[in-house]
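job 3f2a | input accepted
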Amino acid sequence: MVLPSDADCVNQARGGDPNAYKDLVVRYQGHVYGLAYSLCGNWADAQDIAQETFIRAYMNLDQLEIPDFQPGPAETVEKRGLAEAVFRALSTLPPKYRLPLTMFHLDGLSYQKVADFLDIPLGTAKSLIHTAQKKLRTALATYAGDTLAPVVQEVFNEHKLPPEFAQKIINGVPSLAWGIGKECTFAGALEAATAVTQRSCKYSDLMGWSGLAFRVRWYRSRTGQRWCGSSAVGEMPEERDLLSQITGWNLVMCVQLGEKNPDMERFLPRIIASIDAGVPVAAYGYCLDMSVIYGYEEGGKVLLLRDYHKGDTFKLPIAKLGPLQTFLEHKGNPMPPREALLLSLRTVVTNWNRVLGDGGNSGRGYHYGRSGFTAWIEDLDRFDEVDAKDKELLFQVSHWNFRSLLDARKAGVTFLREHADILEEPARSDLLHAADIYQEAIDRYTPPYEAKKIFLCPWSGDPIDRWTREVREDEKGVLRQILSMEENAMEFIERGLKSIHG
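job 3f2a | predicted structure (502 res):
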């Protein structure tokens, strides 16, 4: 059986085949792992370095150049022992000896393959390895005697990478999808983008810090389009600015909404610079849902993305990129946890008590909090008064807002329970009480939603004629009950803040 060349594997990986890149990882993991260990002298750190190296290579596949060779089979060993003495002896070797010796033993590489990888003559590789072995033999003379080679080989065998290492590399570059508890594409894309950096952010934290986990918002226009699905989104200035304050990432949004035939190539240098620095870009892809740009080909004219609709990596010409990009720039250290929690909770209370706002976008009219629930209920009540086109729009937006509401509160429960201990009593207990109320609402209304008894889903094939008056009456009742529960939860949050600030 003829194995595919490195070039074949790279091309297949660029085409979206994760198994092809997994094959490359398996082929070279020993080399990279050995190099990392020789430099840092710590097995756990070496594995972390190797993983980050392969992730970054995956993000920059179009720039990958690696020699076309494969690691040889590992030598069999029959004798074990003296591991600590070997570690001590290895640590005393200068890097120029430790590196080739590590590669020689860690993955069973031949002298020639060590020479190829280090780009040195074969004779030099042999000399370095023999010198390293001689130095080890001297250091271990009282322990190993003539059995040095199998002892060293056994130690390296015990620290080889696990078989699942290559799969972990692919898993380290997250996929996006609907229905996995991350329905806010803004927070989902940011989580995925930061996951391959040294400053990752969890979905529940992004939702909590931004206030999205506790927000309800309803858009109603007096003229033109009456309802808008943007009610539930998070990629707006208020949430962006709050996350920039808290996370240590400066989120820079470039927005071209409303531009006719925008020149997307003007953003290419910035996209390339960010990806080359190891930081993906959150952006609209081919539709107005956030996705993540992980890599590029053809000098950036073709971008590699993952989004909620296609799931795995797909290619998109730069000219077809959507009209919003969010660049993550290193800003500094994250805000201290207690300060961040209090700032987010104050935002939560502000959003709940405000009536109208534009979300930071001039001209938009959103109803928030209590007002949002009230406007939503009123519009369901007016369904028979609007024309057919607006009926269809209300059908879609109402479903999307409720689906997003359930998802947001699930993130909110996680956020409150994980962060409540930051605060002293009685604020801690107040936050946990609020979390329990939100959880009760989730438990009560998720089953009928999933059973398609309320807030039917037009994107799953439910026709609008199934959205009968009786179903809408049930939905209005649910919204009134949730409003009452959220009032109760908000009282606990407000009381907790008051106990801290006096």
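job 3f2a | The two ends are 75 Å apart (CA to CA).
job 3f2a | closed
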